[in-house]
Amino acid sequence: MPRIAAQSEFMCKYTYKPCTNPRSIKRNGNLHTLCEFHRNKANTIQREYARKKRSRKAKAKHNSAISSEDATIYMDKPTTEEESVLKESDMAMLKTEESIFKENDGVIAPEDWVVLLDLFSLSA
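RESULT FIELD:
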């Protein structure tokens, strides 16, 4: 009986199905829980999961960046002649504000902020 227990101590501890392969050995000399085959299988699955997770995260980040760009693109496309005139005047005003911004070393006065806020509330 003790001999069987000693043998099972060195056998793979794969939980889903009995495995008679010996447990692999760590660099420090201790035993891993799994045999080399099941360790490679588990590591492959883990790498694939991590790759998919990174891919989903990058895709979500990309989609959020695209959606904010789409909103800007949509706002730049007037649908009527009146909106077109309004957009042109907004652009002229923004260019004026941009020159004021550059002249003042990047500092915008509170009155300028009010004008900008009014402009953007009109175009929304």
